[in-house]
Amino acid sequence: MVYCGHQMTQVALETPLFEVVGARSPSLRRLEKMGIKTVGDLLRHFPTRYEDFTKVYAIDDLEPGQQATIHGTVEETRTRHSWRRNMSIVEATITDESGSIRAIWFNQPYVANTLKTGREANFSGKASVSDEGEIYLNNPTYELVRMRPRGDGEQEFSHTGRLVPIYPETQGLTSRGIRFVTQQLFKRRPAFKEWIPPKILEELRFPPLAQAIHDIHFPGTIEEAAAARARFSFEDLFLLQLITLQEKMKLATERAPAMEVDIEWVKHILAALPFELTVSQKKSLWEIIQDMERPHPMNRLLQGDVGSGKTIVAALAALIAARNGFQTAFMAPTEILARQHFETMKALFSRIGSADPHDRMPVLGLLTAGSAVIHYDEHVESRTTKADFHDRTAAGEVAIIFGTHALIQKSASFKKLGFVVIDEQHRFGVSQRAELLTKKTADPGADTDTETQAAGQEAARMTSPHFLSMSATPIPRTLMLSVFGDLDLSLITELPSGRKEIKTKIVAPLERSASYRFIREEIRDGRQAFVICPRIDPAEEDEEGTAPKARTSSAFTALELKSVKEEFEKLSKKIFPDLRIAMLHGQMKAKEKEEVMKKFKDREFDILVSTSVVEVGVDIPNATIMMIEGAERFGLAQLYQFRGRVGRGEHQSYCFLMTDSTAHAAHARLNAILEAKNGFELAEKDLALRGPGQFFGQVQTGLPDVAMDALRDPELVKRSREAAIKILSIDPQLKKNAPLKKKLAEFRAKLHRE
Ligand code: ADP
Ligand code: MG
Questions:
Q1: CA dihedral (262, 266, 271, 276) positive or negative
Q2: What is the DSSP letter of 170?
Q3: Cβ(307) – ligand 1 distance below 6 Å
Q4: Which residue minimizes the CA distance to atom 15 of ligand 1?
């Protein structure tokens, strides 16, 4: 009997599974391997679909090919061994009032132990036809009818005669096994605490928690299953909306330095630029300025296609902050990019400064793993120690500090941090941003002896910096609304005029040498080329097939490294022995990377063979060729980013998508790149082609799964947002909704861990 020896205490979602199934159950170990450790985990392991065995047929009515359930008595069971096929065969004859039928199981000798003569059972499966024209059941699922009714009403079947749940299965644990354990759980009448406010449940017609959990596993009808599923999809979206909305409300009450902006001065600066800003650059800058003038923190995302000119917009905003006496932390995902921004800004400010010598330009600082540089003006730049750099920053001497994303989290302290810019931050989940915003005042500065300083600190603690993130990753609108709902959005919708379209071609193995000839010609004309090496999935290389564990990021890096080295060898020894070729990968020291990039920029190399390190932001206008090996292995967003590395100067540029895949799907995807006019269009296309997870490539974005799910159901996103607004407008602190508040705290903690 299933629960002999166990106490019939009520179980809760937190109850460890071993208390329910017994510590020695073999299923327990398999479940734990799948990360299923508590009752809640198991009940959250939802079926992927249901087999419809609802209708019980009379044996005589069975039609060939039909999926059906019959209910009958076992007449006799025989076991034999087929020597020819080397397998055991169990055969049973089953009868009901209408007739009898044969059922066969291969290699499941234990079936004979259960299906003893005289036992009554349900059998669900396919009615097959033998060579002799006889209808029989092939490998049916069966479920015994209890001999003595247990007094708790009608027997609920799990495997037959109903909608039978089919689970995502793994090594050795079948759907039947999972159903068995799940069914046991329900017998223990688990207690589930509802946390969605009843009003919302009612309005959206969602089943209460306990019912939803039951119905998603053992629904009476498909409609019940669908209602339960809708509730669960809603749950996380709803929580996410609550978080972003609360964040937004909180920001609105927080204080930030209100910057003063002299529009005449801004115009004067714009006039000194080497080019005229595009209309949407101007519009975005204007939106940012308006935010910075307010005494509450800006929280804005500047989104614009690769090459649309986001940097200059952020640079101008940083200049405004500096003019108001506030410091800016300008962060990039890689040191290469941080250095590039530093260099760009030096050139830009020197130009603006020389247009009007009275306009003092801010002091710039670059902090990387390898170096600390302070740039006072065109004539004075000093390399210094990190300690000294920090001292000067803490003293407020450096106005705009460039570094990687680690800049603000780790060591830097600021005297008056007023503005934070994060470039190419597609990984900004809710949690990271929250972390950033709390870090802002964690380091208020030097020692705290005197009262005035303490008071100053208090004041500093009271204000948060304005916050601007920039991304070229086209995030579809639905996702924008759900995951980044607390962000305001500025869009750069056009490229600077005069850009030429990047000619893009999918290159099959036969055309490879032609592309090499083409590259050679371009280089002869003075241009440069990138060659990006494929991201190899370690699982593919894994001969023993021990799979998922090997897919760590370090395994990725190792293989990427291998492919970059091989490509470098091939190109520099065989294909282009006469050209200057360099290699770039993530395992090089920061200093080496910077060196290589600098030399490439200075045209000391013709070809740069690289991993995806160059994916974001790098600006080398003289490079006109982007060759991507194993293109089908990258996400479309990533390919798009790679391509954006060229076509930045006056020369016609080219992108070669190298693939030896002949799969239709791979080509359809690559074709999308050829056809899409911009990143947004591409995002929508890829979403349609491959679903949300794939769009961002193999390496995940840090977006929570819910964000991915949200993409599939815009309507549900809308409803979750409306529900969250409704609740918060009545009860902003959720004081009257204690269970929801508790659930939200747990969800928040989970997001932070991810
Ligand atoms: P992204 O938006 O991808 O970060 P960048 O800010 O790196 O793009 O800009 C790409 C290039 O375009 C840079 O070389 C920059 O100087 C140039 N650029 C930016 N705005 C304009 C403009 N309005 N007109 C011409 N060139 C521009
Ligand atoms: Mg950029």
A1: negative
A2: B
A3: yes
A4: 309
What b-and-e string marks burial along 47-60, b requiring 16 or more CB atoms within 10 Å of the CB? beebbebbebbebe
- Helices 222-253 + 714-730 axis angle, to 10: 50
In 3D, which of 617, 627, 674, 626 has the Cα closest to residue 646?
Answer: 626
Rounded to 10 deg, the angle between the 738-753 and 430-439 helix axes is: 90
Is the CB–ligand 1 distance for residue 496 below 6 Å? yes
Region 113-134 average pLDDT: 86
Distance CA 618, CA 621 (A): 9
Residue nearest to atom 26 of ligand 1 (CA): 496
State in Å: Cα 310 to ligand 1 middle.
Answer: 7
- Nearest-CA residue for ligand 1 atom 23 is 277
Q: Give the pLDDT band of residue 8 (cuts 50, 70, 90).
A: low
Q: Distance between CA atoms of 88 and 81, rounded to whole angstroms?
A: 4
Question: What confidence tens digit (pLDDT) does each residue in 59-102 have?
Answer: 888 888 888 888 888 988 998 888 888 888 999 999 988 888 99
Residue with tokens 């359809």: 668
For ligand 1, say whether the CB of 304 is within 6 Å of any of its atoms: yes
State if residue 619 touches ligand 1 by the CB under 6 angstroms criterion. Answer: yes
Return d(Cα 298, Cα 419) in angstroms, integer: 9
First to last CA, the chain: 41
Contact 241, 480 (CB under 8 A): no
The pLDDT of residue 703? 46
Strand partners, 610: 532, 584
Q: What angle do CA 278, 283, 289 make, to 5 degrees?
A: 125
| Residue 77, beta-bridge partner list | 92
Question: 616 C-alpha vs ligand 2 centroid, how far in Å?
Answer: 7
Q: Which residues contact 397 (CB under 8 A, 6 or more apart)?
A: 363, 374
Query: What's the sign of the alpha-carbon dihedral 278, 284, 286, 288?
Result: negative
Binding site membership of 308 for ligand 1 (Cβ less than 6 Å) = yes
- What DSSP string describes 623-681? EEEEEETTGGGS-HHHHHHHHTTSS-SSS--EEEEE-----HHHHHHHHHHHH-SSHHH
Average pLDDT over residues 477-488: 66
The token pair that represents 635 in the structure block: 């996400």
**What is the model's pTM?**
0.65
Q: Does residue 366 have its Cβ closer than 6 Å to ligand 1?
A: no
Q: Which atom of ligand 1 is nearest to the CA of 498?
A: 25
pLDDT one-digit tens code per residue, 179-226: 888 888 888 777 888 999 999 999 999 999 999 998 999 888 888 988
Give the SS3 label for residue 576. coil
C-alpha distances (whole Å) from 414 to each of 189, 329, 364, 369, 420 are 57, 9, 14, 19, 11
Q: Is the pLDDT of residue 540 over 60?
A: no
CA triplet 728, 732, 738: central angle to 5 degrees?
Answer: 95
Q: Which two tokens stand for residue 343?
A: 């260099």
277 lines ligand 1 (CB under 6 A): yes
Pairing of strands 299-304, 488-492: parallel
